[in-house]
Every structure is written in C-alpha cells, then in structure tokens.
Amino acid sequence: MDVFVIPLGEDRYELYCEVAGVPDAPERSGTGFLDGIWHRFTDMLRAAEERQRRPVATDGDKPFLMRVQHRVLGWVVERVAEQRLLWNLRKVDAVVVHHPQDLPFDQVRTIVMRTLRRDFERHRIWLVVHAVAFVVSGALAIVPGPNLIAYYFAFRLGGHWLSLQGARHGMSRVAWSGSPSEPLTELRGLGALERDARAALVRRVADRLQLQDLDAFFTRVAIRPA
Q: Is residue 19 within 8 Å of residue 1, measured between CB atoms?
C-alpha cells in the first residue's frame, strides 16, 4: 500500500492514499443490535458506491426526497474518501510512505505516528457519541418510511469503528518504509501562490504521481485551519 505525506503548511502534514473500491464492512456479529448497525452501514456503503459509478445528474427536476437522498449520498462519498486510508490500513502489513525529499525518514515516521494517534483518539471519542445517538434515534422507528437519522448514525458509527481499527493497526503492526518524492517537495510552495496557480501546481503534481483524486483532497483538507 502506498501512502503520501502531503505538506499543507508550516509543520502541517496530512496522510493521503488512493485505493480503489469501498472497503468491506465488519463481519456479522450474530448480535441483533450490532447486526442492525452492520446492515445499515453496508446499505449506505453500497448506495454510495453505486452513486460513484453513475453519472452525477442535476437536482433541478427531482422530487424533494430524491434531492435529499442524492445530497446525503454525496456526503457519504466524501466521508468514505476521508477515511479511505484508515479503513484500508486494517488489512495491510507493509506501507511505503512517499514524502518530501527534505524530510528524513525518522521525521516522516514521527509524522505518521502522530497523525495516526490523533485520528485514533478522535474516532474513539466520536464512536461513543454516535453510538449513543444511534440508540436514541431508534425512537424515530415509529415514524413511517426509512429512518434516515438511524441510517446516518449507523454509517457514522461503522465508519468510526473501521477508522479506529485502522489507526490501531497502523501504529502497532504495519511496517513503514520511506520513499523520497521530488513532486511532493514542490507542494511546499503552495502557500505563497494565488488560487489558480496553486490549483495548477496541484494538478501537475497529481499527474506526475498518478493520483486521480489529489485535487479533491486539497479542496477538502488544505483549506482547513491548521
């Protein structure tokens, strides 16, 4: 598995990867409560995967509920992209880290471990929060039609669980090795560029590294405050 250390600012880095397909969901537990979460989670993943395969249509003439569903699935696709790295870390034993040339591997490894520890703590907290919210959302089951709120919290709960397992596995069982990358080093100058020039540089680096979704990654992550 290939992971890229992306410089986003002064001493700010994010980990990025591109792995085709949606990761598999946890195996069925045989417990009614957990199986309910599992079913809703996999339903959301399948629907999001299907949306990615279909051309994106405009919402103009769609009924209100279809527009809501379309936007929810678009949101799910984005969340899957955000957690792709951690979800796929669960099942790998070795990772090649592509990093800027001016970073020694000892520092790269520190960045990787620090990022995984941060993600582990964040997903652990939100796992508890969304577990409680999922239970509370069960009260809406008496309302006719699909319980979209329960589906939302089930997806969040399942996503946090997979991310938690991926972060733990990455910190304790994955063998990390480094690969210096000249294109990644070029990204250090992004902060001094205008928006159009910045976008052009990201596209050039993405083409050289054959990363199809790097533009979307920067749109989603790079604009966040450090």
A: yes
Strands 175-181 and 94-100: parallel
DSSP annotation string for 180-216:
EEHHHHHGGGGGGS-HHHHHHHHHHHHHHHT-TTHHH
Tell me the pLDDT of the chain (226 aa) as tens digits: 999 999 987 788 999 998 755 455 455 544 454 555 556 666 666 665 565 555 555 555 566 556 666 666 666 666 676 788 898 899 899 999 999 999 999 999 999 999 999 999 999 999 998 888 877 766 655 444 455 676 777 778 888 888 999 999 999 999 999 999 999 999 887 767 788 888 899 999 999 999 988 888 887 776 554 3
Starting at the edge strand found earlier in the chain, the sheet holding 94-100 runs: 12-16, 2-9, 94-100, 175-181
Helix (H) or strand (E) holding 36: helix 32-53
The beta strand positions in 57-173, using DSSP E, are 94-100
pTM of the model: 0.76
Q: Where are the beta strands (DSSP E) in the chain?
A: 2-9, 12-16, 94-100, 175-181
Q: Which of 112, 87, 117, 116 is nearest to 99 (CA)?
A: 112
- What does the buried/exposed string (b/e) look like for 180-216 if buried means 16 or more CB atoms within 10 Å of the residue's CB? bbebbbbbeebeeeeeeebeebbeebbeeeebeebee
Determine how β-strand 12-16 pairs with β-strand 2-9: antiparallel
Q: For the chain, give every domain's residue range.
A: 2-222
Distances in whole angstroms, Cα of residue 31 to Cα of each of 37, 39, 90, 161? 10, 12, 23, 16
